[in-house]
Amino acid sequence: MQVQARYDGKVYHNTLPTSVSPPSGYGALLKRYLFDRAEREPKAPLGPFRADAAALAAPVPADALRVTWLGHSTTLIEIDGRRFLTDPVWSERASPSQLVGPKRFFAPPLPLDKLPKLDAVILSHDHYDHLDSAAIRWLGKTGVPFFCPLGVGAHLRRWGVPAANITERNWWQTVELAPDFTLVATPARHFSGRGLTRNDTLWASWCLLGPQHKVFFGGDSGPFDEGFRQIGAAYGPFDLVMLEIGASDPEWANIHLGPDNALAAHQLLGGGPLLPLHWGTFNLAFHAWRQPVQRLLEAAAPDVQLLLPAPGQRVDVANGPLNSQWWER
């Protein structure tokens, strides 16, 4: 039986009991915030990083699978003749205010107005580090379709996206873009909310199923063995798997994977080239900013094909593993 989120008429609930409150209490978190010595932000400026806008604007070949990581969970996916943008965040801060809150470590490698023509924008949930109202307002004027979990469309409509360009889906529901190309909203173990609200919109992962290639975009999720196993059984193995590895901590182990659990999820999904997301862009946890990728490299088995491009570096997935080591420079 497929795992399902539960909606009680007011809020959504994970399939598994999931706490977003730290077991040690918020006082312990404040103490760590004030006194931990981890290098949570780079000591020196990063970048500038530059994506090749002219190359990205060229037509996507019908048999291509390429991806450009633009930072955090924002990626430009080129798959089987189509282009998709995930969780677009261009603002300087992942916050309700551009005066305070987590600040980018580096400028976006590609300006919004240099994005190529998109077939769709895919959204995983409504947290500020995944859903940037300024970017959505800009993208909404281009006429691009948006695909999002249930409830997230209300944000988009409020920011000027025409209702006709918004498609909302529950877990396991599909969108037929063409007879040979399908999007599927799939489960995740997380939560949602902006401002004082929580869990009044759904969160999701997504499968992109083209005629030649299949991609999994994990959004945000905590450990969720049955969910990942079911996704892998239904749609895997994938030609590209994108999972979060950063902003993790034992205090919120239910809602973020971290490197070790990402590797476990990767195996449950059926393996395949792995592009880690959700790290190296914002200070959202207590770990050192390099720790997620360093631990991923330590923990990954030799047969795991890691894709570790610099921000803005376009990756042709068929070319095999890539380790740019940009974080060390």
UniProtKB/TrEMBL annotation:
It holds the Pfam family Lactamase_B_2. It comes from the Bacteria. Residues 71-266 form the Metallo-beta-lactamase domain. This is MBL fold metallo-hydrolase.
